[in-house]
Amino acid sequence: QVQLVESGGGLVQAGGSLRLSCAASGRTFSFYDMVGWYRRAPGKEREIVARIRWGGDTTYYADSVKGRFTISKDNAKNTLYLQMNSLKPEDTAIYYCNSVPAKRDYWGQGTQVTVSS
To answer: Could you tell me if 91 and 104 are in contact, meaning their C-beta atoms sit under 8 angstroms apart?
Structure first.
């Protein structure tokens, strides 16, 4: 079992930046081939925005965030990051980390990101 704790969210103006962190405890991320960041915007389904291969550097981004968001990791700290630049109001959502594909029992509380126009 793994426990995931997301942090770093907040309120930011459009065009601003935030850096999200996801700390894993229990089973480490190295157990999984791919890990990622997801988000759920108000009234919408949860979607994956970025993923990275834990044992390598292969990344994937949703078209909506490509060129603005960067996923990274610190294997030694068992921590996943999401650098978000040029934020837009449509990026407002609760952001979560999880394995890819996601494990239902691993969803944490997420971290709220609110982008004002």
So the answer is: no
**Which amino acid is located at 33 in the chain?**
D
Q: Which two tokens stand for residue 104?
A: 């239902």
Distance CA 81, CA 5 (A): 12
Structure tokens at 42: 């108000």
Stated length of the chain: 117
Q: Going residue by residue through the chain, which has 117 residues, state the pLDDT in tens, using 9 for 90 and above.
A: 789 999 999 999 999 999 999 999 887 777 788 999 999 999 999 999 999 998 888 999 999 999 999 999 999 999 999 999 999 999 999 999 999 999 998 899 999 999 999
What sign results for the dihedral spanned by CA atoms 60, 39, 8, 28?
A: negative
